[in-house]
# Entry
Amino acid sequence: TVLVIEAERHSEFGQAILGNSITLSPGTVTLDVYDNHLLVHCLTQSGATDLQSGDAIRRAANLEPVQ
# Structure
């Protein structure tokens, strides 16, 4: 399954953190980052469903430095 994840509220640094953290999850690979979106391949539909829940996005936002 290939899906698009929105990362509008993240800086470029935050998008890199999000993309890398998604890729570290078993069965997922971030294929591209463009216009505040990440293109992600998930090996299973359940992996895609987990990403769409938004938990990874919220966790990555907590790792961004405060401006």
